[in-house]
What we know:
Elements (H helix, E strand, L loop, with lengths): L1 H24 L4 E7 L7 H8 L2 H4 L2 E7 L3 H10 L4 E4 L2 H8 L6 E8 L4 E5 L15 E3 L6 H12 L9 E3 L7 H6 L5 E5 L2 H8 L3 E5 H5 L5 E6 H6 L1 H20 L2 H8 L8 H13 L11 H13 L9 H4 L3 H7 L1
Parallel strand pairs: 1-2, 1-3, 6-7, 6-8
Antiparallel strand pairs: 3-10, 4-10, 5-8, 5-9
Helix pairs in contact: 2-11, 2-12, 11-16, 12-13
Amino acid sequence: MKRLVRSSFLVAIAFMTLLVLASCGKEELQEVKVGEVTRSIFYAPQYVAIEKGFFEEEGLKVDLKTIAGGDKTMTALLSGGIDVALVGSETSIYVTAQGANDPIKNFAQLTQTDGTFLVAREQIDDFSWEMLKGTTFLGQRKGGMPQMAGEFVLKKHGIDPHNDLNLIQNIEFANISTAFASGTGDYVQLFEPTASVFEAEGVGHIVASFGTESGHLPYTTFMTKASFIESDAETVEKFTRAIKKAQDWVYANSAEDVAKAIQPFFEDTEVELIATVVDRYKQQESFAKDPILDEEEWNNLQDVMEEAGELPKRMDYNELVDTSFAEKVMK
């Protein structure tokens, strides 16, 4: 009996020793606090990078928070509440124009088109943009990229948003879809998955894509303060490499596989619907294929902002964009 107890004790000691050695040999992950402007399937590659362990492969642990609104997200970044912000590049222009002490740098692009769709109340087989004239249009918040890209597209098709339409812009972002479902408006500009949900429920019908019409834009990018890059450039490089791995994975795998990978971030949404949305964004290449924000996209962004009357002043590409990390992980 004593021999049995002694043997069990020795086995337990050996097992505990192995656990200690294993934990000592494992590299501790560095935490990076990330704030996303909203939770959206539009940001699928980010969630893939988390779920597929691409950040962990780089020695990083991402603490992801959703901070509603670009202004609040940038406030969190500037105050040190987060290390990295995922938000529209226009916010970096607004902040710089106001005279930020610590310059903001866009270092990795996640989406490269507008992510909204034009939804009509009735099904239209042969839609033309001319049909919008004289209708009530539920638009997005003034000064945000969805609104600016939306107006850019309307003007491209010869429609003056403020004279040819009954344009409604005084409804909070979170309430726009509810307002349309309740009977307000003939057309509405919506993000996914709401647009597809409305289509499935017969509330509305997708008739056009603002993303396809507005061209390539640095619609959503990862940005951080210049001081963070200076103090922790290695972390920024690792972060960018993880995003590039996720971008490659998204385009190399089916919409269904991507949907299954990111479903933990959208527990209330059926995986089939997530797949439909992912496929739509892949087809129009809304997900950036690499993290490089190029100068042509930057200029297109400023043209869109200028057309909407929201550009404080034109900002030099090299002042607010740092592609060195993206270029390095591309090699």
